[in-house]
């Protein structure tokens, strides 16, 4: 997968998963996607379309993008993530997150899951297993 396709997939995922979050939160979710792809040796697309990874894609449904201003902000967040990665930052390798609006998922309490930080309404973690 080429660079532009991968980052387009991340922007679409951000739009559906975190468009209401502050820009810093969208950048953090972008890091999670990229970290997960690198850690699992998968493409970004493979990470996003895996079953039970991102709620907006579960079952292979692809809802439309209807708020283009929000989508542009997601593209900006992907660019922000890319710039941070060029300077060596990757959100401390965070590869999991969840919204505080839901009950914590089972994995969040696993002893090998390390809490990184909360940004907006998302809590970020790294698997240290």
Describe the secondary-structure layout.
Elements lengths: L2 H16 L4 H18 L3 H6 L18 H19 L9 E4 L13 E7 L2 E6 L2
Antiparallel strand pairs: 1-3, 2-3
Helix pairs in contact: 1-2, 1-4, 2-4
Could you name the key traits of this structure?
3 strands, alpha+beta, 4 helices, single chain, Arc Repressor Mutant, subunit A
Descriptive report:
This protein has 129 residues and is of the alpha+beta class. The protein has a domain of 89 residues: Arc Repressor Mutant, subunit A, CATH 1.10.10. The chain has four helices and three strands; from the N terminus they run ααααβββ. A three-stranded antiparallel sheet has the order 1-3-2, with helices on one face. A hairpin with a 2-residue loop joins strand 2 and strand 3. The longest helix is centred in the middle third of the chain and has 19 residues. It is globular and about 40 Å long. The model has no long low-confidence stretch (mean pLDDT 94).
């Amino acid at each position: 997968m080429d660079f532009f396709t991968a980052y387009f997939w991340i922007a679409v995922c951000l739009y559906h998963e975190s468009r209401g979050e502050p820009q810093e939160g969208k950048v953090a979710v972008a890091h999670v996607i990229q970290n997960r792809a690198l850690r699992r040796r998968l493409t970004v697309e493979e990470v996003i379309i895996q079953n039970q990874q991102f709620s907006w894609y579960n079952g292979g449904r692809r809802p439309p993008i209807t708020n283009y201003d929000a989508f542009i902000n997601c593209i900006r967040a992907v660019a922000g993530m890319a710039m941070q990665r060029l300077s060596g930052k990757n959100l401390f390798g965070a590869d999991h997150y969840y919204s505080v609006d839901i009950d914590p998922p089972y994995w969040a309490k696993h002893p090998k899951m390390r809490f990184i930080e909360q940004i907006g309404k998302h809590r970020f973690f790294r698997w240290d297993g």
